[in-house]
Structures are given as C-alpha cells and as structure tokens.
Amino acid sequence: MNSVPKPKEQKNVIILLSGGIDSAACVHYYLKEKFSPQALFIDYGQASMEKEYESAKKIASYYNIKLDIVKVDTSNRFGQGEIKGRNAFFIMVSLMKYSTFFGLISLGIHAGGLYYDTTVEFVSDMKTLLDKYTDGRIRIDAPFLNWQKPMIYEYCRKNKVPIKLTYSCELGTDPPCGQCRSCLDREILNVS
Questions:
Q1: I want to staple 43 with a disulfide (CB 3.0 to 4.6 A). Which of 39, 51, 71, 110 is the partner?
Q2: Ordered structural domains, the chain, with CATH
C-alpha cells in the first residue's frame, strides 16, 4: 500500500468559501503556498445566503479561482447564533460533491470560537472521519486554527487580502445588523 502524502505535499485544496474574512484569508494563504485552490459555497438556508454568495463570487473572481455552489434544501431558515453540525455538514457535503478529489478541504475556523466545530478537537475528529472514508486521500485543513481573529485580520491587512469584498452578518441585512457575533467581530476589528 502506498503511503498517503502529507498535507503540504497535496497541492489541491477545496476552500469552503463563505464570503467572510477568514475564508478569504484561506484563499490567499493557499495561493501563497503554491496550492491549486478551488472554492465551494454552500447554500443551506442561511439568512445571509445572498450577501455571502455575492461576496464569495467577488473573492473567487479577484483571485481567479473556480467557485462551485451546492444548494441543500433543509426546509429551515438559519439566522443568528450557533448552527449545530454546520462545519461537519460542510465537510460531508464537500466529500459527497468531490468524491474523486485528492487533496485538502479547508475551513477558515480560528481560535477563540465558542462552538465545538471551531476547535482543535473538532478538526481532529473530522480528520479521523475523512481518513476512514477516503483512506487519507482527502484531508481537512484549518490553517488559522490556532490564531485569534485579530491575527487573521492582521494577516489580511499585511497581505492585501480584499477585506472590502467580504461580508459577515448572520442576518444577511444591508447594511449589516451590527448586533450578531459576526458584525461585532468586524466592529472590534474596525472593519467596515
């Protein structure tokens, strides 16, 4: 049996692109690391879908990468706060869509989150699951997992990641609501 290449040897990556700062930073990160990125946007009934998708398209266009979209009808409309299982769901949707893919599936999660699916433990659990489904052919990666949100913002600023193209409001309003956790993060970082 051939050994599975380590993540840095796998130069293909699917970035789960939400249209926010963290996933935009991921696109820049993988391009800088000489990966061949493509992006996936998932419409799962989130209130902010239209604004997020618009931003994801702008970011993909800016970096000249392919953007796919998957629409999953959950018959729910998700708004503010934790959506249990969301990141695991995104990974499983990616696995189903790209069943013959070889490389990384990347999430823009970071330290300081309040939810299980933004933790080191979650990434470890998902790595185990993906290894079992794909014999290590597809791996999860979260390059900013140990960074706090201000560190990602500083990375974006230093590397000229187009933050103005991003959108982060859980309610999907225009202008953003200013009250949800995503809006409060942007306010703390002084991102308009």
A1: 71
A2: 7-189 (3.40.50.620)
